[in-house]
Amino acid sequence: MDAQGNPGDFWKLEFAVQMTCKKCVLAVKSALQDVKGVQNVDVSLESESVVVETTLPASEVQKLLESTGRRAVLKGMGNVRSQNLGAAVAMLAGAGSLQGVVRFLQVSENTCIIDGTVDGLSPGLHGIHINEFGDLSMGCERCGGHYNPEGNSHGSPGQADSHVGDLGNISASDEGRATFRFENNRVKVWNIIGRSLVVDEGEDDLGRGSHHLSKVTGNSGKGLACGIIARSAGLFENAKQICSCDGITIWEERDFPIAGPERKKGHPTYAHL
Ligand code: ZN
Known about the structure:
mainly beta; four-stranded antiparallel β-sheet; 13 strands; eight-stranded antiparallel β-sheet; Alpha-Beta Plaits; binds zinc ion; 2 domains
């Protein structure tokens, strides 16, 4: 369901799941059976992969898969229809333990699904925006304004007079984790590659506040975590090694932070450094 109560758009998620026997396959299937928002589940023992058609956030499907006692790693995402309209990912980094991963999938000409997890935030609401530039040379300070090709005022997503980059707020739990899945009709993956995604320190007032910055930025304070939006693999395009850049294999990936200095710690690839 989206904010208007319409049934959500389905997307297809491909997970690598450690499975060694037919019993494992049954356990995985039963973990996803009768779950609201899941319509098709395809489990392959041979390739240790599970493909799920769902309206749920990727993190929730992963949790369900891991409730069977197995590890699951998201390998790719795609359309339930056959065409590939593009996908992108932003790895967010900030001070301390602040980090996140946000995925963009264009499921139709009209709809882009934006799905992510951000860790290390203070509890509560934080503004999230696509900013104009992918320049992280000064932390989040050189990312420019909210992506705004139509010259509009700042607002909330879904509102006609708003920046295309206005994604609203994400809500962090008491543990500092925000997980979310938005369906956005104005963001197109092909227009945002090379730009940045920024999570702000405070709540975005969605242009409704009295502060002079309300109509420009939502008055949500400075950027805390940011990352460049890069093209990413679609469904079934990922090889066994999820990140050939640093040699961390798909199963090790689960135990390492997705970005930041901690990723390098203790990994054999970096033992000589
Ligand atoms: Zn804005």
